[in-house]
Design goal:
591 residues, alpha/beta, eight-stranded mixed beta sheet
């Protein structure tokens, strides 16, 4: 058996920042070299960031990616790192002679490359292109049909990209036929609740299918609505977990592996293999002139502890907010603070993401604000050390009322829109990013004011149901108590009945069912796409089903105008769920 010290660089690239991403590759390659690694791998499309969306169709961007790849190979060699093989993801394209009708313009490729001795030693492209959920890769890429098997430190290493692991057949099947000793998978796999368990089971199954150790490196960081959680791992050929990186943080996972020696008899440089999915993949073998690895005492690899459900959700929200602020050049955030649970959680997430000194909140009392709402908001500000400003809106609202004479819902919404004018004005004045405070339950049912509480640049709890808002708030307070700190959210905020406070004595339950009942129904209708009859068969009240369906379907135009926010569920309002605004289809009602 051969020894191989493998380093998986779980890093946080930024879409479009090719030079900054190349710096990441060089910096973390140096760390891997200092750790004595014999091979280091980076995530999918690390040089361009991921997903690049329609940038893939822009020739100038593709060519910049190609140039960056070549420069990075030369730079690694120039900085004394050329003898360490490096696997990176990047954006490439087919040559002119390979272009075909019906393919994306320019035939872009979601590619990987082996860099060694100042050159690109091997290349390949993703074979399976995902086209579901948040992925539109048939729009952007053409399929690869090569599997590089590169010999390094006496081990044959096959390399594939993300979706190639999730689909049957293709490169994993060919890896087994090629007799590789290690299957290295580079990934841009976004976070969803409980996905870590799914990934581990998948990696274990594919390792058994390939008949070799499998190493899975994933990126970390926020990109618009997506959050990448890392969770890089290595499993043995029997599916046993050998090493695992932490979630939601950059990390260099280094593991000493004992792997089968590469065969000594000559192997064909190219070998077509039926891939088990109706295609043929060509195995391309490359031998790197790496120094032989003398025997050494292996070090037990780290296995990061698993996170519980609430910890991973909260970690995803904090990372999503932090990177949206940082990568878009903002220095501070602002939000309205009402004394209610939603704005309290948003302010707390923001403080954990960017630091309390960079969080500004506005208290906007009106004639319908209860005294405890104001005092609860002030107590939260005191506990967390946020910047706070109180702007009473009564006079502003009355000025509009004198001119417009609104009644009913229009009068209620007027207050919400005046509040938005205040925080948007302060945003323009001071350069803060406005955080909206609406949750998924409200967005689903349209229980929000367009150009009022929906106004802003980023929605931290957009994909979080009201029930989960309470659960996360309690969890965050429990973490503070366990650490000997003051709970950031006053208990009074958690305990009080929720209210928009737009009319006297108003409660959310005046318009909506209890949230535990509502959220269970929304999960089945939105997440699982169950129709009316299926919802009733699942145990939901028939009258409530019809009412909630009307609310959800009628609010599509509102949701389309809501800002982005971090995705934590399998189906968020945004990239996952795409329904027409103009839509006369209604679920059949009784009779």
């Amino acid at each position: 058996m051969a020894q191989l010290r493998l380093a998986l660089a779980q890093v946080n690239p930024t879409v479009g920042d090719l030079e900054g991403n190349a710096d990441l590759v060089v910096e973390w390659t140096r760390r891997a070299a200092e750790a004595g690694a014999h091979l280091v791998a980076f995530p999918e499309m690390v040089l361009t960031g991921y997903p690049v969306e329609d940038l893939a169709l822009r020739t100038s961007f593709v060519e910049a990616s190609q140039r960056t790849l070549e420069r990075t190979a030369r730079r690694l060699a120039a900085e004394g790192l050329g003898d360490l093989p490096v696997v990176v993801g990047y954006l490439d394209r087919r040559t002119a002679g390979q272009m075909r009708l019906g393919q994306p313009a320019g035939s872009p490729l979601n590619s990987l490359a082996w860099l060694h001795d100042g050159r690109v030693a091997a290349r390949s492209a993703k074979h399976h292109l995902p086209n579901y959920g948040v992925f539109d890769e048939f729009r952007y890429f053409v399929r690869g049909d090569r599997l590089p098997v590169v010999r390094v430190a006496g081990v044959d290493v096959a390399t594939v990209i993300c979706e190639d692991l999730w689909q049957d057949g293709g490169p994993v099947s060919v890896t087994h036929a090629a007799g590789a000793g290690l299957l290295l998978v580079i990934n841009g796999s976004p976070y969803e609740r409980s996905k870590d368990d799914v990934r581990l089971e998948l990696a274990a199954r594919r390792a058994r299918e390939a008949g070799c150790t499998l190493a899975y490196v994933n990126m970390v960081g926020g990109q618009d609505e997506l959050v990448f959680d890392g969770d890089s791992m290595i499993v043995g050929p029997d599916g046993e977990l050998l090493a695992r990186a932490p979630r939601f943080a950059e990390d260099l996972l280094v593991a000493d592996l004992s792997l089968p020696d590469a065969p000594s008899d000559p192997q064909p440089a190219e070998q077509p293999v039926k891939a088990g999915d109706g295609t043929t993949i060509t195995v391309e073998r490359t031998v790197l002139s790496a120094r032989p690895v003398p025997p050494y005492e292996p070090v037990p690899p780290p296995v990061a502890p698993a996170l519980d459900d609430l910890a991973e959700v909260y970690g995803a929200l904090v990372l999503g907010v932090r990177d949206y602020v940082r990568k878009n050049g903002f220095r501070s955030v602002i939000c309205g603070l009402s004394g209610g649970i939603d704005s309290a959680l948003v302010a707390t997430i923001a403080a954990d993401a960017v630091g309390p000194d960079n969080v500004h909140v506005v208290l906007l009392p009106s004639r319908h604000s209860s005294g405890h709402s104001v005092s609860d908001a002030e107590e939260l500000v005191k506990r967390q050390g946020l910047h706070a400003r109180t702007v009473p809106i009564n006079d502003m609202v009355e000025a509009f009322e004198r001119e417009l004479e609104p009644t009913g819902l229009a009068a209620e919404n007027l207050q919400a829109r005046v509040r938005a004018v205040v925080w948007m004005g302060l945003s323009n004045q001071d350069g803060h990013l406005v955080l909206t405070t609406g949750n998924k339950s409200e967005l689903a049912t349209g229980y929000s004011t367009l150009y009022g509480d929906s106004a802003g640049g980023y929605g931290p709890i957009k994909d979080v149901t009201k029930s989960m808002v309470w659960a996360l708030s309690r969890w965050r307070n429990e973490q503070a108590v366990a650490a000997g700190q003051t709970p950031p959210i006053p208990q009074e905020i958690i305990d009080k009945p929720p209210s928009a406070e737009l009319s006297p004595g108003q409660l959310d339950t005046d318009s909506l069912p209890e949230y535990d009942v509502l959220d269970a129904l929304l999960d089945d209708y939105v997440e699982r796409d169950l129709g009316r009859d299926a919802l009733i068969a699942a145990g939901h009240d028939a009258g409530l089903v019809e009412r909630v369906i009307r609310l959800v379907d009628g609010a599509e135009y509102k949701r389309r105008q809501y800002p982005p926010g971090p995705k934590i569920t399998p189906k968020n309002f945004g990239r996952d769920r795409r329904l027409p605004i103009t839509n006369r289809w209604r679920e059949p009602s009784a009779g």
